[in-house]
Amino acid sequence: MELTGENLIAGAGARGTAVFRAVDPSTGAVLEPEFHEGDAALADRALAAAEAAFPAYARTTAGERAAFLRAVAEELLAAGDALLERAQAETGLPRARLEGERGRTVNQLRLFADHVEEGSWVEARIDPGDPARTPAPKPDLRRMLVPLGPVAVFAASNFPFAFSVAGGDTASAFAAGCPVVCKAHPAHPGTAELAARAVYRAARRTGIGAGVFSLLHGWGHGVGLALVRHPLTRAVGFTGSLRAGRALFDAAAARPDPIPVYAEMGSVNPVFLLPSAVAGRWETIAQGLAQSITLGVGQYCTNPGVVVGVAGPELDRCVRALAERLRAVPAGVMLYGKLSEAYAAGLARSRNRGAELVAEAPAGAGPTRGAPALLATDAARFLADAALREEVFGPSSLVVKARDAAELARVAEALEGQLTVSIHGTAAELARHADLVEILTRKAGRVIFNGFPTGVEVGHAMQHGGPYPATTDARTTSVGTAAIARFARPVCWQDFPAAALPPALRDRNELGIWRRVNGAITREDVPSTG
Amino acid sequence: MELTGENLIAGAGARGTAVFRAVDPSTGAVLEPEFHEGDAALADRALAAAEAAFPAYARTTAGERAAFLRAVAEELLAAGDALLERAQAETGLPRARLEGERGRTVNQLRLFADHVEEGSWVEARIDPGDPARTPAPKPDLRRMLVPLGPVAVFAASNFPFAFSVAGGDTASAFAAGCPVVCKAHPAHPGTAELAARAVYRAARRTGIGAGVFSLLHGWGHGVGLALVRHPLTRAVGFTGSLRAGRALFDAAAARPDPIPVYAEMGSVNPVFLLPSAVAGRWETIAQGLAQSITLGVGQYCTNPGVVVGVAGPELDRCVRALAERLRAVPAGVMLYGKLSEAYAAGLARSRNRGAELVAEAPAGAGPTRGAPALLATDAARFLADAALREEVFGPSSLVVKARDAAELARVAEALEGQLTVSIHGTAAELARHADLVEILTRKAGRVIFNGFPTGVEVGHAMQHGGPYPATTDARTTSVGTAAIARFARPVCWQDFPAAALPPALRDRNELGIWRRVNGAITREDVPSTG
Fold first, then answer.
1. d(CA A308, CA A291)
2. Contacts of B120 in chain A (CB under 8 A)
3. Percent of residues in chain B assigned helix, strand, coil, to nearest 5
4. Which residue of A284, A295, A475 to mutate against B (max B Cβ within 10 Å)?
């Protein structure tokens, strides 16, 4: 497929005044074609199209919406080698990783299709009325979730499929019944265009209007802020840096009518090593950490950026083993130039703040490389200097050596909100360190026992989120079926005739969904009061 | 019981530098004793106490928390006449209304106790692991809601029990497992102190630490903003004016770590009259509207402030009947001086903007009175002037006359977010006006057919909330059991040993709650994989 480089407004190409080109990070080569930057005027057109498409899309049945989601999955697969090759050229990610990520993206779309068909996500609640109640008749109340309206989705650079154009935010918004206006990540604009065209093909063959999707390009902040500030935008999904995420959050909060922003902004994903772990399982831990730190050249939100243990010869032995493994991992191609520059700057910052460089892999040849590195510091310094607690995005980690269990707990207390926290030890240690576990659980969206944070399973029970600054909304997840609730709100119908009620709320449970009737969860029909 | 007039920090009295006294709005008489205003230092002490109490309170079993909630209900009843008399003196509300409201408050606490005991509100989700999966083992993931931490609750003036110290926000935060620091409404500080003492008695006799509750007084914004800005505060519940609610929202959004603000800020609760309603049921509608407009001297968030119909002799007849009934309702005592002044100013503003005064009841004798009033305007003026669409808090309504059905829809489109929208007509008309119903549903948290918005049922299916500016968070409700989710967030445990998991997430479903296991909702145990 020929790339046009245009913004896509409800499927129609739209040029802009400024252009840019993608770069192959592995070679520095500039890629064709030119891409047109979106602007406020195009954002307005995209949101007008989304708003126009919303009523019909919100009315689609679960089956229709599921068919659309599954068709998007099929079209992503049908995009074949062209999609994978463009993604490889734009991101420097290996082919096998990209195939795996596309598979994950396809499964995610299908999981949301299944979830929408199962149907209970609307959280139907029915309190039947009682006209005979005294002193006042009891009204008939029926409540369920309805879609919010047009959603602005900001694609991430580090998952060109799974957190990009047809990734989790788009899938969950579509599943909820919301049109999407997507801001493509400028590091992979061609991949974005190909994925967008897959979305349009899926819409066309399942009878969904093209207005449910638009794609805007751009490196600048202008078009993104225009999306967030637009009066028709009802919610925002974002994965990226703290600085960019906070800017979108602030813009949304400053609107005349504030809207929710679901920004996933990463974290340092601390790994706590309890005594038995460093004493007994140190080799396994060194191996697991080295893999987790260097996976995807460390470009994961869940990359373990901090490792905490009690100082001593056993921790030193574990750190030496980890250092040795990291030195052996070749430098990798990072996603784009600014990212590899920021990685180098982050390592320099930590060293300037007194962290000791324990190991560094060779820098490697070619542009945009990131070499694995391990730093270390003592807990006192880590506690005294917030700069050491900031995320360094890339294949490095900082070992923090505490004097004793009490200082371990102080390190835990000093942490900001995290996507994940991992704890290594025995079940007996978990019980003995219950206070530490409680502190860590309060800081994180996901707590992991004897494992490593990378690898975010897409399922029903996943929580990918956490207290600020991991995200701007710890009450939600950006991975897994629970993400659908981000793009919906409850409405209660009072004393409505059955024909005017959504099918999910009628006495006869024709959808077969789980509902809360008079407070009890059931799939039975509502008993007739006639 | 003797009132001390002190702030209550975890049960201990604390004086302030400034003092104020309550006023009986029906007479203007100043009431004893002096009340001490809280300040930032007391807010800090209260939140430190809440934070210290949080871990133990979060660990309480459902049964312990339910017993506490039921004990609060019992102690409110046991506070007896002293509580009702003080509330009557401070609010001017009639005894019968206050008794009814206390009953509602007690039922609300008991409903949350039942809901916590039923237990499914934690939304447990379990995706069991599969160590044999290839290429990578599937981790064991278990997710549920956990309490957020200390919550700041701002009491409302218009419900001295149900939306005050031991009202819905406090009950739902306690139910979720969160300590509460309550900012008393300064118009009923004595009622607040008595209710706070009931909370402490309940805590004492159910073994809950007094740190779970504190009460701060004050007319100024200082103490409230100090609560919202305090680093330990994890969420905010508020019912009151748009101006005050937005100020709290802005302060929370500007924090280094933003926190959710659930501000319910009222609305105009439009009532749409379709042709058959004004033709056939005009007398019933006039009667219902007159009751709803004047109930509680119009001091409800759900007061119907706008009535919309198609101009013509039938609408005129209905308006005349409504005007006649409103003229016959005596002026009532409003809650406090500023409120009756704002009511008079609001009516004057609407008249200055060209709304015609159709009817006004006699002003009545005594201070702080609000007399029922009816205004009218045409849709063109209503559409052109946003000031006419603003809430006038008190016993009045504005009739908006549209030329035809198309202009009715334009009025609907022009409305901001609402707590409620009511539609009067026949079932056939609902179907004929599907587009209008869709517009209105998008604007509101609750849509009512052939009824009136006042009277907010406390149950499972209630939605009391709506798009901004009705609230700052349309995804939640401040009335009904679903409110508990406002004060919780999900945590996912990965590969944790059973003993270290919360009971709700263990294989054996010992709590008997509904859970989503492998995506299917069930009360069965998790099948053993051993």
1. 17
2. 521
3. 45, 20, 40
4. A475
Which domain CATH number covers B181? Answer: 3.40.605.10
Q: Are A244 and A261 in contact (CB under 8 A)?
A: no
Same domain, B183 and B327: no
Q: Rounded to whole angstroms, what are the CA distances from A453 to A256, A438, A457, B49, B247? A: 39, 18, 11, 34, 39
Report DSSP letters for A151-217, one per residue.
EEEE--SS-TTTTSTTSHHHHHHHHHT--EEEE--TTSHHHHHHHHHHHHHHHHHTT--GGGEEEE-
Distances (CA, A) of A118 to A63, A68, A486, A514, A525: 10, 15, 18, 9, 17
Say how far residue A1 (Cα) sits from the centre of its chain.
29
Residue range of the domain that includes B117: 8-15+35-265+478-485
- C-alpha–C-alpha distance, residues B117 and A354, integer Å: 52
Closest by Cα among B419, B474, B479, B481 to B446: B419
The pLDDT tens digits of the residues spanning A22-48 come to 999 999 999 999 999 999 999 999 999
Examine the domain organization and report whether A322 and A246 are in the same domain. Answer: no
Taking CB atoms and an 8 Å limit, are B431 and A500 in contact across chains?
A: yes
Question: What's this model's pTM, rounded to 2 decimal places?
Answer: 0.98
B380 and chain A: CB distance < 8 Å anywhere?
A: no
Do residues B86 and B92 lie in contact, with contact meaning Cβ atoms separated by under 8 Å? no
Among B494, B511, B521, the residue to mutate for chain A (most A Cβ within 10 A): B494
| CATH number, domain containing residue B426 | 3.40.309.10
Do A244 and A217 lie in one domain? The reply is: yes
Q: Which amino acid is at B116?
A: V
Q: Which member of A6, A75, A264, A407 is catalytic?
A: A264
- Asked if the C-beta of B168 comes within 8 angstroms of chain A's C-beta atoms, the answer is no
Q: Report the alpha-carbon distance of residue B121 to residue B66 in Å, rounded.
A: 14
Among candidates B488, B518, B521 on the partner chain, residue whose Cβ is nearest the Cβ of A120: B521
Q: In terms of Cα–Cα distance, which of B166, B164, B170 is closest to B186?
A: B164
What is the distance in angstroms between the Cα of A18 and the nearest Cα belonging to chain B? 33
The number of residues making up chain A comes to 530
Same domain, A212 and A85: yes
Number of domains in chain B: 2
User: What does the alpha-carbon distance between residue B186 and residue B512 come to, in Å, rounded to a whole number?
Assistant: 44
Q: Is A117 a catalytic residue?
A: no
- Paired tokens of A367: 């542009």
Angle between helices B62-78 and B189-205 (to 10 degrees): 130
Q: Which of B461, B472, B491 has its CB closest to that of A141?
A: B461
Inter-chain CB proximity A139 and B496 less than 8 Å: no
**Are A314 and A285 in the same domain?**
yes
B149 and chain A: CB distance < 8 Å anywhere? yes
From first to last of the 530 residues of chain B, give the pLDDT tens digit.
Answer: 689 999 999 999 999 989 999 999 999 999 999 999 999 999 999 999 999 999 999 999 999 999 999 999 999 999 999 999 999 999 999 999 999 999 999 999 999 999 999 999 999 999 999 999 998 999 999 999 999 999 999 999 999 999 999 999 999 999 999 999 999 999 999 999 999 999 999 999 999 999 999 999 999 889 999 999 999 999 999 999 999 999 999 999 999 999 999 999 989 999 999 999 999 999 999 999 999 999 999 999 999 999 999 999 999 999 999 999 999 999 999 999 999 999 999 999 999 999 999 999 999 888 999 999 999 999 999 999 999 999 999 999 999 999 999 999 999 999 999 999 999 999 999 999 999 999 999 999 999 999 999 999 999 999 999 999 999 999 999 999 999 999 999 999 999 999 999 999 999 999 999 999 999 999 999 997 64
A491: which DSSP letter? E
Q: Per the domain annotation, does A244 fall within a domain?
A: yes
Indicate if A251 and A281 belong to the same structural domain: no
Q: Give the pairing of strands B369-370 and B332-333.
A: antiparallel
